[in-house]
Amino acid sequence: MELIMSHGKFREDKTCQNCGNKVDHHYCSHCGQENTETRQPFYFLITHFIEDFVHYDSSFWHTIKNLFLKPGKITNEYLSGKRNSSVNPVKLYIFISFVTFFLIAVVPSKSSTTEGNVEISPAKEVLNKEKIQVKQSLDSLVIDGSITKNQKEFIDKAVDDGDEINLNEVDIKTIEEYEKDVNSKAPVLTRFISKFKELRSNNISTEEIAQNIIEHTLKLIPKALFVYMPLFAFLLWLFYNKKKNWYFDHGIFTLHYFSVVLISVLLIYLLTALSTYIEISFIVSILRFIAVLIGLYTIVNFILGLHRRYRENIIITLIKGILLIGINSIIFFTIIFGIIIYSYLHI
């Protein structure tokens, strides 16, 4: 029995728009194109995309269920040629990435919705007024010719950053030399500490700063995963039989596992965001505990997936799995840490 899945209004004209042949039913018997109207409402694009995965494509739920409950099974089925019962790995990853990016973007935490409304402390207001007065005095010195414009710009920057300027040091004769000396002394660490002081002076607590860092990290992980996938598959290729398993095979395993990771990241983000709106500490602790369990399960899922996919002794699988997790964690979190530091310094 033929199952017809209509995704739009059918045309009254029975001439195929693609190949020009006559269409006897809903689909052209020559090229297979559906005989629907060319122009559709905008919502059609969204509903069509979702229907392909959820409503009409029952293989989506079959795929998701087995990715979490039977890691490695979908990969084995796909590589053995049984591909109609599951969603294409690339298509699956793209869809899950879209959902993850979208929900992380539209679901804010309480801290992110209030961080733009932080009141500046009275001490901060006094400091800002003093900075304005200093800059006005510098303008007068430039007009008088007492200092150059370059010197004024340097002092302005020092005032904004809260740096101390000592022009009486013996080994520093000019402001230009002083600027070079300051920049050579741990500039990143200095900026990191200055940023922390700035946030604290704006009445942002250490807990809120940590919460924001966690949220930024979760938002960056989907992007970092996409870039990191080829290297992840390459490490699998190095650890397992290069003749028996092609790089393509490891790529399919990687797409399936990273789909699990993305869903886990999304669930952790939603639980973390939800916890910021709840003031009952017991419930918050439960939500955070569940988030930790989800994170730990991604590790268990990886080990089980390796065991089912590559069919090695469980001890060998554990050793290789732990080594792979260790190597990937060092590389991946080094990348994430660098991105976090950059984002933190540019808040």
UniProtKB/TrEMBL annotation:
<dbReference type="InterPro" id="IPR022134">
    <property type="entry name" value="DUF3667"/>
</dbReference>
<keyword id="KW-0472">Membrane</keyword>
<feature type="transmembrane region" description="Helical">
    <location>
        <begin position="92"/>
        <end position="109"/>
    </location>
</feature>
<keyword id="KW-0812">Transmembrane</keyword>
<protein>
    <submittedName>
        <fullName>DUF3667 domain-containing protein</fullName>
    </submittedName>
</protein>
<feature type="transmembrane region" description="Helical">
    <location>
        <begin position="220"/>
        <end position="240"/>
    </location>
</feature>
<feature type="transmembrane region" description="Helical">
    <location>
        <begin position="318"/>
        <end position="345"/>
    </location>
</feature>
<feature type="transmembrane region" description="Helical">
    <location>
        <begin position="280"/>
        <end position="306"/>
    </location>
</feature>
<dbReference type="Pfam" id="PF12412">
    <property type="entry name" value="DUF3667"/>
</dbReference>
<keyword id="KW-1133">Transmembrane helix</keyword>
<feature type="transmembrane region" description="Helical">
    <location>
        <begin position="252"/>
        <end position="274"/>
    </location>
</feature>
